[in-house]
Amino acid sequence: MEPKTSYHHGDLARAAVDAAFGLVRAGGPEAVSMREVAGKVGVAHRALYRPFGDREGLLNAVAARGYDLLADRLAAAVEADDPRRAFVAAYARFALEEPGLYALVMGRDRRQIAAAPALKAASDRVIQLSLRGLAPGLRGAEARDAVIAVWSLLHGALALYRSGLIRAADADQLADYLVRLTEGRPFSAGT
């Protein structure tokens, strides 16, 4: 069956983002091609260039949804009794449970984020929640630096965990370990 050249049964952009979102979740950003997404929604791949411009535009739309998902998890965390601990645990669990989305959202650079309004809004939401959860009471450069320090530690530690250099029995043990690291507390050996 030949792919359709136009899409008349709903919202093509939403259908394409849904399809690409599933591909990213299953195989990371490298699993997304315009042809694969077009095949999933039943259109010619050329039809996807109108709403997205190119593959990066489609990935930016998926990244915006990924940031929104991360923000939803972090929003609940910053309302906890111990927001820093809850934030670190929620962030780590997102990275572990959604490795493809995590790779995509953390792989978007400043230029890509600035060029896509929905991605910028979703990214800004995560930044604001990070400031609330990780730097309460701090302002300006001091708050920014506190967030960057924790994000850097988490991002690096998660990469070390994935490579097997940090061991943990499960996501809960890893989250506890990361919380202790961000608090500068001693931690047990073997983790």
Q: Name the overall outline.
A: globular
How many helical stretches? Answer: 10
CATH superfamily of the largest domain: Tetracycline Repressor, domain 2
Measured by DSSP, the beta-strand proportion falls in under 5%
Number of domains: 2
- Report the CATH architecture of the largest domain: Orthogonal Bundle
CATH fold descriptor of the largest domain: Tetracycline Repressor, domain 2
Q: For the terminal residues, how far apart are their CA atoms?
A: 54 Å
Provide tags for this entry.
191 residues; mainly alpha; Arc Repressor Mutant, subunit A; Tetracycline Repressor, domain 2; 2 domains; disordered N terminus
Question: If you had to describe this structure to a student in words, what would you say it looks like?
Answer:
Helix 5 (83-97) packs across helix 6 (99-107). Mean pLDDT is 89; it is low at 1-5. This protein has helices at residues 12-27, 34-41, 49-52, 55-77, 83-97, 99-107, 110-115, 117-134, 140-162, 171-183. The chain folds into two domains: 1-53, Arc Repressor Mutant, subunit A; 59-183, Tetracycline Repressor, domain 2. The chain is built from ten helices and no strands. The longest helix has 23 residues, at 55-77. 71% of the residues lie in helices and 0% in strands. With 191 residues, the protein is mainly α.
